[in-house]
Amino acid sequence: MTVPVFRFAPSSNGALHLGHAYSALLNHSMARAAGGRFLLRIEDIDIIRCTPEREAQIFRDLEWLGLEWEEPVRRQSDHFDDYAQALERLVDADIVYPSFMSRGEMRAYIADAEAQGTPWPRDPDGAPLFPPVDKERPNSERRRRMEKGEPFAWRLDMEAALAHVAAPFFWEETGGGPKGETGRIAARPDAWGDVVLARKEVPTSYHLAVVVDDALQGITHVVRGRDLFHATAVHRLLQELLGLPVPRYHHHALILGEDGRKLSKSRGDTGIDALRAAGATPGDIARMVGLDLSR
Ligand code: GLU
Questions:
Q1: In tens digits, what is the pLDDT along the chain, a chain of 295 residues?
Q2: Ligand 1 pocket check for 43: Cβ under 6 Å
Q3: 9 ligand 1 Cβ < 6 A
Q4: Residue to mutate (ligand 1; options 18, 42, 171, 206; most atoms within 8 A of CB)
Q5: Ligand 1 atom at shortest distance from the alpha carbon of 214
Q6: Residues 80, 74: contact at Cβ < 8 Å?
Q7: How far is CA 121 from CA 88, 212, 236, in A?
Q8: d(CA 275, CA 282)
Q9: Index of the ligand 1 atom closest to the CA of residue 10
Q10: In a domain, 143, yes or no
Q11: Which atom of ligand 1 has the smallest separation from the CA of 235?
Q12: Would you say residue 27 lies in a domain?
């Protein structure tokens, strides 16, 4: 029998708050209950905002919460070559293209299109889909602009990518989507349009790094917040394109602030560090997020 492998994968761009504590504790207790392994992964591809100090604080907070994880911890910034290799395969398959449109150009393009009377399509997070301008550029122009050193992002050509794989494809959901979806979920990556897979300076994006790492670390169970439920469709597509194994997914409820909004890293009052300084115990934290650690 294969041993289940779980992971908690915080980004080290800020301090952990109650929402992270819930995700970490839930992962840890599900791993224990399944007789499985528990790994920690530091997602620090944003090399400007992710700092060693913030990473050290994450370790301190998780240790204080009573979690134990396997060493060594995988740090994404140490593995840019792995993501670059995966990206190269997609470049070779001709299903990614360099995009040069700036945010301002994109806004103007969409405003123009909407002025004709049709609302521009949005992704599941509410962001406008990427316009088809860069996708249509000739290779000679792409090469010229890249050689000139213009900033660009590698984007997945969603249409070409979908033509490469056998649809439909699915994932097994044991938590729940925003509408309570569970069981076998049909992936709809087209809802995201031409997503960014890498940038000129960083050879990956969240989507690419997460699927490469989950595969390299042998993750069998992905337990994470419900805000990533719809993004799983993109992850499934990348797994199909790269021939990677498919974990089971458990998207858990989000811990919301008193105003009913998602917690943010800048709101000190729900930070683990601030709660500890105010006298909370790890048991208090677990109770605050609705988990009973004594079982
Ligand atoms: N690093 C992501 C975050 O902190 C989580 C990624 C994942 O669990 O797939 O939101």
A1: 689 999 999 999 999 999 999 999 999 999 999 999 999 999 999 989 999 999 999 999 999 999 999 999 999 999 999 999 999 999 999 999 999 999 999 999 999 999 999 999 999 999 999 999 999 999 999 999 999 999 999 999 999 999 999 989 999 999 999 999 999 999 999 999 999 999 988 999 999 999 999 999 999 999 999 999 999 999 999 999 999 999 999 999 998 877 777 776 655 668 999 999 999 999 999 999 999 766 5
A2: yes
A3: yes
A4: 206
A5: 9
A6: no
A7: 29, 29, 22
A8: 10
A9: 4
A10: no
A11: 9
A12: yes
Per-residue tokens: 286: 């677990």
Pocket test for ligand 1, best of 43, 50, 216 (most atoms within 8 A of CB): 43
Confirm whether 116 is domain-assigned.
no
How is residue 81 written in tokens? 């070559």
Domain interval for residue 1: 1-78+255-295
Token duo for residue 9: 């994968």
**Residues 90-114: b if buried by 16+ CB within 10 A, e if exposed:** bbeeebbbbbbbeeeebeebbeeee
Ligand 1 neighbourhood includes 224 CB (under 6 angstroms): yes
Tokens at 191, concatenated: 């809802």
Quote the Cα angle for 235-241-246, to 5°.
50
Domain count of the fold of the chain = 1
Tell me if 55 is assigned to some domain: yes
One-letter amino acid at 234 equals V
Q: Which atom of ligand 1 is nearest to the CA of 8?
A: 8
Query: Cα–Cα distances in Å, from 276 out to 16, 269, 270, 271?
Result: 12, 11, 10, 9
* Secondary structure of residue 100 in the 3-state scheme: coil
What pTM was estimated for this model as a whole?
Answer: 0.95
